[in-house]
Amino acid sequence: MVFKRLSRRLFAPVTAMLSIFFSSFAHAEYVLNMTKGVSTISNDIYDLHMLVMWICFVVGIIVFSVMAYSIMTHRKSKGAVASNFHESTTVEIIWTLVPLAILIAIAVPATATLLDLEDSSKSDVSIQVTGIQWKWRYKYLGEDVEFISSLSEENRDAVSASSPNSVEHYLRDVDKRIVVPVNKKIEFLFTSDDVIHAWWVPELAVKQDTVPGFINTSWAYIEKPGIYRGQCAELCGKDHGFMPIVVEAVTMPEYQKWLVAMRGEQAALAASSDKEWTQAELMAKGESVYKATCAACHGATGAGIPPVFPALAKSPVATGDVKGHINIVMNGKTGTAMQAFKTQLSDVDLAAVITFERNSFGNTVGDLVQPSTIKSLR
Amino acid sequence: MSAAADSYYVPHGTKWPIIGSIGLSTTVIGFANYLHGSSFIMTGIGLAIVIFMMYGWFGQVVNESMNGMYNAQVDMSFRWGMGWFIFSEVMFFAAFFGALFYARAFSIPWLDGASNNADTAKLLWPNFEAAWPLIQMPLTEKFDVAKHAMGAWGLPAINTLVLLTSGVTVTWAHHALKKNNRNHLVMGLALTVALGFLFVGLQAWEYSHAYNELNLKMSSGIYGSTFYLLTGFHGFHVTMGATMLLIILIRSIKGHFTPENHFAFEAVAWYWHFVDVVWLGLFIFVYWI
Amino acid sequence: MTTATTHEGDHHDHGPATGLMRWVTTTNHKDIGTLYLWLSFIMLLTGGAMAMVIRAELFQPGLQLVEPQFFNSMTTMHGLIMVFGAIMPAFVGLANWLIPMMIGAPDMALPRMNNWSFWILPFAFTMLASTLFMEGGGPAFGWTFYAPLSTTFAPDSTDFFIFAVHMMGISSVMGAINVIATILNMRAPGMTLMKMPLFVWTWLITAYLLIAVMPVLAGAVTMMLTDRHFGTSFFDAAGGGDPVMFQHVFWFFGHPEVYIMILPAFGIISAIIPTFARKPLFGYSSMVYASASIAILSFMVWAHHMFTVGMPVAGELYFMYATVMISVPTGVKIFNWVTTMWRGSMTFETPMLFAIGFVVMFTIGGFSGLMLGVAPVDTQYHDTYFVVAHFHYVLVTGALYSIIAAFYYWVPKWTGHMYDETLGKIHFWWSTIAVNVLFFPQHFLGLAGMPRRIPDYSVQFSEFNMISSLGGFAFGLAQVFFLYIVIKTIKGGEKATDIVWEGATGLEFEQLASPAPYHSFNTAPEIK
Lengths: 378, 289, 528
Ligand code: HEA
Ligand code: HEA
Ligand code: CUA
Ligand SMILES: [Cu+2]
Prior knowledge:
The complex is a heterotrimer of chains A (378), B (289) and C (528). Chain A has ten helices and ten strands. Chain A has three domains: 2-118, Helix Hairpins (Orthogonal Bundle), CATH 1.10.287; 125-270, Sandwich (Immunoglobulin-like), CATH 2.60.40; 275-377, Cytochrome c-like domain (Cytochrome Bc1 Complex, Chain D, domain 2, Orthogonal Bundle), CATH 1.10.760. Chain A has helices spanning 2-26, 40-73, 89-117, 153-160, 252-272, 279-298, 316-319, 322-331, 347-358, 371-377; strands spanning 125-132, 135-140, 145-149, 178-181, 185-192, 197-201, 206-210, 216-221, 226-232, 244-250. Chain A is elongated and about 95 Å long. In chain A, the strands form two sheets. A five-stranded mixed beta sheet of chain A has the order 3-2-1-5-8. Residues 1-29 of chain A have low confidence and may be disordered. Chain A is an alpha+beta fold and 378 residues long. With 289 residues, chain B is an all-alpha fold. Chain B folds into two domains: 8-70, Helix Hairpins; 71-288, Cytochrome c oxidase, subunit III, four-helix bundle (Four Helix Bundle (Hemerythrin (Met), subunit A)), CATH 1.20.120.80. Chain B contains eight helices and no strands. Chain B has helices spanning 16-35, 41-66, 72-111, 118-124, 155-178, 182-213, 221-254, 263-288. Chain B is globular and about 70 Å long. The termini of chain B are far apart. Chain C has one domain (24-510): Cytochrome c oxidase-like, subunit I domain (Cytochrome C Oxidase, Chain A, Up-down Bundle), CATH 1.20.210.10. The model of chain C is unreliable at 1-13 (pLDDT under 50). Bound molecules: heme-A (2 copies), dinuclear copper ion and copper (II) ion (CU). Dinuclear copper ion is lined by residues 131, 134, 197, 232, 234-236, 240, 243 of chain A.
């Protein structure tokens, strides 16, 4: 399958190559250097980066000029005669000590910045960030706000249609942004449910691995309101490239408002699990949950990628006893990529997606699962 | 058919390596398939080929050596070769010792909140308490929980004595060889081999005790993991070493060695001391402290 | 029983056996060297073809050619094959060809084992490559195979990968033992350690690195295996282990590994530059000490690949200081080479061009390495294309360039034929322009925020990716052209003189004919 796709498309870019190449340059707004960013630490890091880069530039120019001069003049074709010197302890010592001195000059500010970077104490807001194949869970500690953020739906469609220009922030947009206040020290606590990911937003200069079973911390003090985008920066499996992060930095009052709204949303969600849902409602809801959460592995058409990711179409589990189906979706299966979705999805989402799976892709079980059932099984 | 003592012996063509490669690949492909449910037959065949290769290869080397085709310089190459081979084995064990030290010094305390991991303990493993040997893992449900750890002063101490004694007996045999005392040589070697296999037997017995009575398994968290991998690889090396000693014993009985020329003996003796030293490390860091 | 020895000159003219079995059973260092070099070239083309898939997919944003999982397999296999299949065997091949000739030995110290070191590799790589066709796909967790992506979450084929790595390890350790035994035991009388060519010196040091770290890699994959199948929890926090422990074990191997791939290159460059500058190498002994310092330091810096895993700050500081320290001995080398050129009488045949290319571009790669070593800034660089740019500058324009330079420099000695100088020069300029178009823009991509190991990217990275891909295709074609040059040179060409180069020194040039006889030195040469 891979190979078919490979051969079918191999020549497309080659033919399109030159035209695209020149047209895209016409309106390019490319970036050459590291961002200065919007947090205190990102500015320090940027300065340090520039310092080291300039040092390398200067040393490089000196070394390469000497070399170039030598190449130009000390060549046989110009009649140069080789001299025979081949040792000098003095110069060896000099060119050991000078680089050493340069390194010390770099190490001093680097140490200061590093100590600062690693000090996430005295924070005002704490957010626990959990990496999950291939989405992020954010939990505002002490605020009772928790949600999952993954690649936005338009983006998903753009990926499957292979049309990156059809959306504004290709691969860098999410369904739910994380909102944080400006001018506050925000502490992030990173962990993971499965493999190692890394949460990276260049403008905040936060890049930290999320290690399953451990918590790493980092922090940001954002000085400018705005929307900052990043993505997962540690290979974490198939959809590593599709794990974006969007941070919205707002003023404190707006942040408070957002928290209240989020709490309200969550309460409404919880309440909705007590209501009786119709088949049609569940199917509609289920389809969107499926697309957002399950299709990454089980495929948009339920075909999966066997044998690693089983097909759900005609799957014995998805067409068999509903208890087994609920069980695997809620509790996952340890040792496989199938996660325990009860920690990620609401009662309604779970009920809906299970109902959807039992009645789609050619599966025609016909039954439906009510959110209340799920709630009672938690 | 004595080739020169003044020139370096360069063999011309050999079929053993390619047989070895075929054997090795058969073994590992068989084993990988075995791990996914196939039978063990292919692995067995592969191992048989490897053993055949070693038998043939070493047999040829023994023959050449007996025919006096190796001069002192060749002997020296073998010495460098064996010495650095043993060093590479040391580094292999170092990886597992490294894992052991890492777990003891870092990961376990960190899971309990040490260093910069206060949040790890608070948010993820509130009930976990660091300890070594680690019996109660952070998430005990996933693992086999042992009743208690393996003590140092029962069988392991006896095994230490067994191995240390075998180190003495092999040295005794070496001195005998250098003095051309065949009887003592054979006696010393036979004792060493016996002690070696005794060690392996006791170790097996200990394993069955640990497995059945203590419920200490490879799947008993990091303690079980390091315990079995370190002692297991060590036990495997003792078995190899004892087998090599056995071969040397047979060769000694056949009179293959002279007081001047017996590098095979020395190589195996070096190996044996290496196995001995690794055991001391194990005894101290796995069983004792 | 055949009792062929190098004795009495009775087979000075004893040529090789014929047919396929010659190559399968050979114990001759030159034959084995040739086998290694061909294996390496095939692997370069294979790994390169995978790189072409990567570059083609990244030519434009959007998923064009391959599935993400397959893309990850390509990245993984490309890295593994280039490191273990292309660069390392090429250096071992060069060692086999050159070390006995350079130190005045009849052959390698342990010829049968030499054969085995080689003949494990084709099996190992076949096994590794076969994983791509297995159910569930090949390994897709990067050449660094971090747990738990490579343990709990990996495809079944991973076990074959694990055993392939074991086999490569066995091969490397045997190869290294052989090099050590040869250098320490087989030198002609009078060839004292401080008279040895630097290629021999750097290989001696490399061999020690190999023996010290390949077994650790074997340990790492063994722990992976038991975590996967036997219930151990080395890399599982739930059982008291730590996924990050994997990285420590891996990089304890991995960092010295990158110097394994560059130290022999230093030796090659130290042979070529003096020849074409017609002037002795400046600072021979400081070169030896610098190489040894680099090797020793290389054991103490591994966690600079792990600045973002959440180490305690004292660890980060230590690893930062130790890492940047490596710039000092490396700088000594660069300065020595430049000074060797200074006031020489230079000519610029192809080997010299590649050597100069090496010095310039390796230094650029070294500078980006220094930048990466500054821990707080690595927060921004880590796992971006800046890192990819760094290591391709040191590996492609470093290690690979040195190997190409070595080929042009010694091939007249090996085959007795001069390569075609014009084609060689074309090869150099074509490669050098292409490789910079290929990798220089990746610095910008990394700084602008493009992560590595992604099959698809956000549109702001389009332009540089396209440029990079174009450079990639051009560089790839240049290496196909190189293949043509290699074959052409082997088949024929102007007859080489024994000394080959006007300024050449060393036993292989001064005391052996071109092509070198099948057995180099049956009687030890005079060392002045
Ligand atoms: C041949 C291989 C090779 C070589 C020689 C090097 C050389 C160096 N490397 Fe590199 N490196 C790799 C191969 C190599 N590297 C690979 C493959 C990776 C990625 C692995 C992966 O993740 O997949 C990597 C990644 C890597 C990282 C991790 C980046 C990250 O993932 O975040 C770091 C960080 O410190 C680093 C640092 C260095 C340093 C400091 C050197 C130094 O040795 C460089 C020293 C040289 C110079 C500095 C230039 C010359 C010196 C002078 C002219 C003297 C004067 C100069 C000054 C003092 C300014 N390397
Ligand atoms: C050791 C040496 C080495 C060498 C020589 C190379 C050579 C090349 N590398 Fe490699 N690379 C690595 C080591 C090396 N690489 C490593 C260790 C990684 C990290 C892997 C990981 O992340 O796990 C990596 C990762 C890596 C990436 C990042 C992938 C990712 O993060 O997803 C890219 C992307 O551009 C890349 C490109 C190239 C290219 C274009 C070449 C070119 O120089 C190749 C040129 C050679 C050829 C092309 C072969 C000859 C041509 C043919 C066989 C015919 C086909 C030709 C055409 C169609 C034109 N490499
Ligand atoms: Cu998550 Cu990459
Ligand atoms: Cu490194």
